[in-house]
Write a structure and sequence with these properties.
This is Enamine deaminase RidA, house cleaning of reactive enamine intermediates, YjgF/YER057c/UK114 family. It comes from Rhizorhabdus histidinilytica. By secondary structure, the chain is an alpha+beta fold. The chain contains three helices and six strands. It has a single domain, classed as 60s Ribosomal Protein L30, Chain: A. Strands 1-2-3-6-4-5 form a six-stranded mixed β-sheet, with helices on one face. The longest helix has 18 residues.
Length: 127
Amino acid sequence: MTRQLISSGSPFEKQVGYSRALVDGEWAFVAGTTGYDPETRVMPDSAADQARNALALIARTLDGAGFAMADVVRATYYFTRAEYWDEVGPVLGEVFGEIRPAATALIVGLIRPEMKVEIEVTALRRR
């Protein structure tokens, strides 16, 4: 199986050397995804809405690569403030409540001040 790079079309992918996702065999590795609205490129103020946007982009990316959210086996959540966990936790539960991937949540600095949450996932295609 060959390595496949999945692009979102962002000029930053080539500029800084990354892919929205990389598929290698039965594995998909989705890059850290923030919550900009894909149509308006505006970042919502709510951490929960940022998470919803990020998860929707992750789902579209996985679907385009032949995977489903149910294939997610690992998730990492990056928050700029610990209190965002309480706001975003229910959103994560809506998406991953039955899937229950291994997960880690971290408090970090992100590259833009409006970013409150970033999510990355790894998926293993189910046969």
